[in-house]
Design goal:
Elements lengths: L10 E5 L6 H10 L7 E3 L3 E2 L14 E2 L2 H9 L3 E7 L2 E6 H9 L3 E5 L2 H10 L4 E7 L3 H10 L6 H15 L7 E4 L3 H17 L12 E2 L1
Parallel strand pairs: 1-7, 1-8, 2-7, 3-4, 8-9, 9-10
Antiparallel strand pairs: 3-6, 5-6
Helix pairs in contact: 5-6
Length: 211
């Protein structure tokens, strides 16, 4: 395990292709009775429109592109990305505040965001990549999760997914999401192990372990 500061919490980053189930997994982990008092969710900025059922300041901070640019210029963003025409970002102040309170933060990020956070908090970050059972399964999930998804958008998502899968071995752990309950169990085990060894003097390298 990595050597940790006694005064800071951990950051658990969950990445994976669109359709891999990373968001669903993260929500289940946050609601898990064993983990709910150990984890806190990072709420991101986004410029995309609010979807049905989503709440401002709970699911995302829904802001205008003008406001996003202002936050970016003021260097208030820990990381940011543009995906399918919309901006997403992690507020820097929130992350600093949680870590100083020894809170453990879970967030879903793309590759760029994940490695940006890893560079900033190298000793506090645990990177977990969620893999689909196969590309065929991923394609099926992409095309059925929303019947309004355009063919061109699916093609772009699949191309991006192939690029993401090519670098999954740079993550600390890889979990195959074939069965949701099993994947939750494996992720829960990873998180509890990392928290337990928070004060350990042993340090490990980033080895992608297929769970």
């Amino acid at each position: 395990m990595r050597k940790q500061s006694k005064k800071q919490g951990l950051i658990f980053i969950i990445s994976g292709p669109s359709g891999s189930g990373k968001t669903t997994l993260a929500k289940n982990l946050l609601g898990n009775k064993t983990l709910k008092n150990k984890l806190t969710r990072s709420i991101s900025f986004t410029t995309r429109p609010r979807r049905s059922g989503e709440q401002d300041k709970k699911d995302y901070f829904f802001i205008s592109e003008k406001r996003f640019k202002q936050e970016q210029k003021a260097q208030n963003l820990l990381e940011w990305t543009k995906y399918m025409g919309y901006y997403y970002a992690t507020p820097k102040e929130f992350m600093e505040r949680q870590l100083q309170k020894v809170k453990h933060v879970i967030l879903c990020l793309d590759l760029k965001g994940a490695f940006t956070v890893k560079r900033r908090y190298s000793k506090n970050t645990v990177m977990i990549f969620v893999m689909p059972p196969s590309l065929d399964t991923l394609l099926y999930r992409m095309t059925t999760r929303c019947n309004k998804t355009k063919e061109e958008e699916v093609r772009q998502r699949l191309t991006l997914a192939q690029q993401e899968l090519a670098v999954c071995d740079r993550y600390d752990y890889c979990v195959v999401n074939k069965d949701l309950n099993q994947a939750i169990k494996e992720l829960k085990g990873i998180i509890l192990k990392e928290i337990t060894h928070l004060k350990s003097s042993k340090e490990r390298g980033s080895i992608c372990r297929i769970m």
